[in-house]
Amino acid sequence: MTAAEAAPTDQSAPAAPAAESVAPAPGAGPPRTSLVARAAAELTGTAALVTVVVGSGIQATELTKDVGLQLLANSTATVFGLGVLILLLGPVSGAHFNPVVTLAEWWTARRGGAGVTLREAAVYLPAQIAGAVAGAILADAMFGEPLVKWSTHDRSAGHLLLGEVVATAGLILLIFGLARADQLRFAPVAVASYIGAAYWFTSSTSFANPAVTVGRAFTDTFAGIAPGSVLGFIGAQLVGAVAGLALVSLIFMPDRKAAAALPPAPQRTGLSERASAARRGG
C-alpha cells in the first residue's frame, strides 16, 4: 500500500530516520524483521485480541444481567486492548491481526504499492487464525469454561451480514485511508476507536475479522458465534474489504491533472516505502 509521502528532503536537510525506527500500523509495510518474528507477532496479537474480546464478554455476563452493560464492558475492553496491541506490535508485523487487512495490503502491493508479499501473506493468515483459536481457548480456561465448546449463538440473519459488510468496509477505508493521508501514526487510537464505535452502530457488533470470527466459534459464551454462521460472516467481511478498497481508491484518488501541472518534486520517501526498502535491505 502506498502511504502519503513525507516532507521533501534535499542534501542540506537532515537525513530521514532509519527504517527500523518507523513504527507502522495496519496497512503499512512492516520494517526489516524476520518472517518468523512477524508471524509470532501476528499470532500473539490475534490471540491477545480474542482473549480480550471473549474474556471481557464472560466477565461482563458474570457481573450483570443487563445486556446493554454487558456490551458496554465488552466494547470498552476491546477498545483499550486493541489500541495497546497495535502500539506494541505494529513496529514488528504491522499489527494486522486480521486476514482481510493482510489480503488488502497484499492486493495493493501487487498493484504497485508497498506491503506484504504473497509468501508473507501465506504465513500471516494461518498465524492469525491459530492465534484467534488459542485466544478463545485461553479466555475460556481463565474463567473455568469448557476449553472448547461450539457456540450456539446463531448470527445468520441477513441484517447481521449487512452489518459485517459495513463494519469491514469502514475498517479498510480507515486503515488504508490513513496510509494514503500519511496519518498512520494515529492508527492505534483511530482503529481502536472505530471498532469500539462499530460495536454499537452495526447490527453484528462488528467482528470485521475472519480470524476472530473463527476463534469466537470455539466458545459458547457472550462473544461466541455458531459454526453455521461463520462462513456467512467471513463472506460478508470479504465483500466489505472489497468495498472498502474501492472507497479508498475513489476518495483518495490523486488529482492527475494538478499533479501533471506541477514541476518535478524532490525525491521523497514515504512511510511504507522506507519500510519496504528496509525489508529489501535498502
Could you walk me through the main structural features you see in this protein, from its secondary elements to its overall organization?
This protein has 282 residues and is mainly alpha-helical. It has helices at residues 35-63, 67-93, 99-110, 118-142, 158-180, 187-201, 210-216, 227-251, 256-261, 271-280. Helix 1 (35-63) packs parallel to helix 4 and helix 3 (99-110) runs antiparallel to helix 4. The chain is globular and about 65 Å long. The two termini are 18 Å apart.
Entry summary:
The protein has 282 residues and is mostly helical. 63% of the residues lie in helices and 0% in strands. It has helices at 35-63, 67-93, 99-110, 118-142, 158-180, 187-201, 210-216, 227-251, 256-261, 271-280.
Kindly list the characteristics that best describe this protein:
single chain; 282 residues; 10 helices
What is the CA–CA distance across the termini? 18 Å
Helix content: 55-70%
Give the SSE string. HHHHHHHHHH
Note poorly predicted spans: 1-25, 265-282
Shape: globular
Q: Report the total helices.
A: 10
Major β-sheet, in short?
none
**Would you tell me the overall average pLDDT?**
85
Over all CA atoms, what is the radius of gyration? 19 Å
